[in-house]
Design brief:
8-stranded antiparallel beta sheet, 844 residues, alpha+beta
């Protein structure tokens, strides 16, 4: 009787389960709810548009979106009018659901613990409703350049004149205002002029841009990463990072224009004003390059020149003596302060001659210091000496001023090679003949800073220094750093040191008065000069600039009957030059600030700024606008026409890359990978094989093999036969191990980044036709002038006839060397982020 009842109840179980599942899936978020993956349209943010990117791992990540404004809200239904919830600025959300409702997305609140291994914990989910895409930030990264795949950078400079009508709306003190909304009612923060920023999104009407301080944002740190909305009249795109030093471009090819077509002459005044502005800000030190193109032996690109928005030429300031300084005088002073002349003076006898080769070697180590092209300083050099190889000179030997330091090094090296023939000057008429000649050379260069590197051992005559000579040192704006190479017994050695001390004291004390002519703040005034002992070496003294002393000067001498270590010479010439640059930069900065702070009623808009944007020529900037910039100088860009250079000229152009910290890391990894696999000789490969343990982990017991190994090592380390003879005896000429893996590795390293995630695909056979230089440009964004890289194609790497093993070995060695060069890149900061200026010379 019970059997029929059991059969009747069986269908109830699945029915009940189905009902329970149906009930549990009735809510907006349930166990079957799935988080959407990032669509291809919103993975790489191509040009700020909904362009589909190639499939990558990014498309497997959950789609996180953000509210792009304050007072935002969601709705119960897509396209409906019934509000669901209020949403605040930059609140993060996950997109859910499988069905689209036009331009509306279905959201749940994002929290770090809501996803476990990519799966939604629906019990923790907070449903928010539907919202239109236009009110969301749909991307996790900034705008990507379609051609290169790199991130576009922007700069905070004037691009239009909208903001000058309402300065209180757009500017805070020395900064630009950012907002949390498009109505510009809720301020998000500020950024400094010339800050590097990244575009995340543009408003529907194209008037404002949502910007970040880095190219990639995260939900956990989005409120620190995203800066806010800024008006498009205050920002400008500067490309992906390639820049050029405008000074290296031939004058005949530089053409700039305003009003879309009207060409303007690049006068000396315009160049000076632009240079002074670029010196003030690291981010505009070089000029952005766009549309870099090549055809046959020609290169074409566009660039821009930074100019100030305001013209201060009608203003004047007062120095600390109460005398006027016009803006034209200020520009002339600033230009002179960027000139440094250095005279290497050898005013000594036998001891200086005996150590001359070591001295020349120490001076040769200074060459990298003068090869820096990014500090706007110009250097010229000469040398004066009291000895030569003829032994017949009656007057100091003097070279003319040159901007090529290698000329001086070569001249001194030639003399050093004839050390045994060098003889001191005959019958000197007075003391310090070489020094006097060096000071005389600077009579026509008083606007520059003239550094005398004085090297010797003893004073040649009994006559001391006279006041006429010390006054000439002061008038010629000289600084002296003295090195006594040897300290013997007797007064002549003591007098060498005492005379230099007297000369430094004389010009330094004189500058307390004369330098007041270019000082504009009481903070700059110094009343007394002091020496400080520096370094671990005894008898090393330097004026304690900038603590108390008004100028720079130093004196180094050894203990009695000892010689001066040569590293002291190299290190302290470097230090004095850095102090001079610090001093000159400070003077310029104080004056520049003074012009921005006073005489506001005379400040005008820059004439080119007025012409370009059609401003009324009689219009005077509002005091609120000028008053917004006391410490800072706002600027704008004048575009160039297409610049065309031939290959030979382009090879000497001073290109630089502006890279973020992440981009720099990526570049270093790329260069390191190029040199990862080295070319081995057969003996090296055998040595590596011998070092491998046997499978059974047994020790090597072949004593004859061990004896052969010892013999080879002895020959390799034999200083008599040398390395080349070792290769002939042991290795044999040209005996390279197989280079197949090295060649394959290089080709793969070059092709992989070019192929990765590119919107416009190219055939592999076509890419292999690229030269190494062309491939490198696509990867790094910077052209190279290396002849070898321009001659070898990627496909040639696997051809031993085109690239023999020896050439391949040299190529890998070259890459290995360049890996270390990248550590020399100049670092700077913008918007709290680290950036680098990478000179093309530091790249392969």
């Amino acid at each position: 009787m019970n059997m029929p009842n059991k059969t009747t109840n069986k269908p109830l179980i699945p029915i009940l389960l189905g009902v329970l599942l149906l009930i549990s899936s009735c809510g907006p978020v349930h166990r079957f709810t799935r988080v959407k993956k990032t669509p291809r349209e919103y993975s790489l943010n191509y040009c700020g548009e909904d362009t589909k990117a190639p499939k990558t791992d990014l498309n497997k990540e959950p789609w996180i979106v953000y509210s792009d404004r304050t007072e935002n809200q969601t709705y119960n239904n897509g396209g409906g009018k019934v509000k669901a919830k209020d949403v605040d600025y930059l609140d993060p959300f996950l997109v859910i659901g499988t069905k689209n409702k036009g331009e509306y997305l279905k959201l749940i609140k994002y929290t770090p613990d809501i996803l476990k291994n990519g799966k939604l914990d629906y019990k923790k989910a907070e449903y928010y409703g539907w919202i239109h895409k236009s009110k969301l930030l749909l991307n996790q990264q900034s705008v990507t350049d379609i051609n290169s795949g790199k991130k576009n950078k922007m700069l905070a400079v004037f691009a239009d004149t909208l903001s000058i009508n309402e300065p209180e709306k757009y500017f805070a003190v020395d900064s630009l205002k950012l907002y949390k909304d498009l109505d510009q009612k809720s301020q998000a923060g500020t950024i400094s002029p010339y800050s590097v920023i990244y575009q995340l999104k543009q408003s529907a009407d194209g008037t404002m841009t949502l910007v970040a301080n880095k190219p990639y944002i995260k939900a956990e740190t989005v409120k620190e990463d995203v800066l806010g909305w800024v008006d498009n009249s205050l920002i400008k795109d500067i490309g992906t990072g390639l820049h050029v030093n405008l000074q290296t471009i031939p004058l005949e090819t530089k053409h700039f224009f305003i009003n879309k077509s009207e060409e303007i002459p690049v006068t000396e005044d315009i160049s000076d004003v632009s240079r002074m502005l670029c010196e003030q800000y690291k981010t505009i030190r070089f000029n952005p390059v766009s549309s870099y193109s090549t055809k046959d032996s020609l290169v074409a690109f566009r660039t821009r020149m930074a100019l100030p928005v305001f013209d201060y030429s009608n203003n004047y300031i007062f120095n600390v003596n109460g005398n006027q300084i016009s803006h034209k005088q200020f520009r002339d002073i600033a230009k002179g302060l960027k000139k440094i002349n250095i005279s290497f003076v050898f005013d000594g006898g036998e001891q200086t001659i005996s150590q001359f080769p070591q001295i020349v070697n120490a001076l040769q180590n200074l060459q990298p210091l003068f090869e820096q092209s990014d500090d706007y300083y110009t250097y010229r050099f000469n040398c004066v000496m009291t000895f030569d190889e003829t032994g017949k000179i009656f007057h100091p030997l003097n070279t003319g001023l040159t901007s090529d330091y290698s000329e001086i090094v070569n001249f001194l090296s030639d003399k050093a090679n004839m050390k045994d023939k060098l003889r001191a000057i005959k019958l000197p008429r007075n003391s310090w003949p070489a020094l006097r000649k060096a000071v005389e050379c600077f009579d026509k260069h008083r606007d520059a800073t003239n550094l005398i590197v004085l090297i010797g051992d003893k004073r040649l005559t009994n006559s001391g220094i006279d006041s006429t000579f010390t006054n000439r040192i002061l008038k010629n704006n000289c600084r002296i750093v003295g090195f006594q190479v040897y300290a013997g017994e007797g007064d002549d050695y003591n007098n060498f040191v005492l005379d230099i001390e007297d000369m430094i004291n004389s010009y330094a004390d004189g500058m307390i008065k004369t330098k007041r002519n270019i000082l504009v703040s009481p903070e700059q005034i110094k009343r007394i000069n002091y020496y400080e002992q520096v370094g671990e070496q005894k008898n090393s003294y330097r004026l304690d600039f900038p603590a108390n002393s008004i100028s720079q000067g130093a004196l180094f001498f050894p203990q009695k009957n000892e010689s001066l270590p040569m590293e002291i010479l190299t290190n302290n010439v470097d230090t004095i030059i850095q102090q001079i640059k610090q001093d000159n930069n400070s003077i310029t900065q104080y004056m520049s600030k003074a012009f921005r702070s006073v005489g506001n009623n005379r400040t005008r808009f820059d004439s080119l700024f007025v012409q370009n944007f059609g401003i009324d020529t009689l219009r005077i900037p509002q005091k609120k606008l000028i008053g917004s910039f006391v410490q800072e100088t706002p600027g704008w860009y004048v575009p160039s026409k297409i610049i065309v250079l031939n290959d030979s000229v382009n090879k000497v152009q001073d290109y630089h890359l502006m890279l973020s910290e992440a981009e720099m890391k990526e570049l270093k990894e790329f260069v390191a990978t190029l040199s990862e696999k080295e070319v081995d000789f057969i003996y090296q490969q055998k040595k590596k094989e011998d070092q491998k343990r046997k499978p059974c982990n047994c020790p090597e017991d072949d004593l004859f093999r061990e004896l052969e190994k010892e013999k080879a090592e002895a020959l390799a380390n034999d200083t008599i036969i040398g390395k080349e003879e070792f290769y002939i005896r042991i290795v044999g000429p040209g005996e390279y191990a197989s280079t197949k893996r090295v060649r394959k590795h290089l080709a793969k390293t070059l092709l992989k980044p070019i192929k990765y995630c590119k919107l416009c695909k190219e055939k592999g056979s076509k890419l292999k036709q690229l030269t190494l230089a062309e491939a490198q440009y696509r990867i790094t964004g910077c052209p190279t002038s290396n002849n070898v890289l321009n001659a070898i194609r990627i496909k040639d790497l696997k051809d031993k006839k085109v690239v023999p093993d020896e050439m391949l070995d040299g190529l890998v060695t070259y890459y290995k060397k360049m890996k270390k060069e990248l550590d020399k890149a100049e670092q700077f900061e913008s918007n709290g982020e680290i950036y680098y200026w990478v000179d093309r010379k530091l790249l392969p």
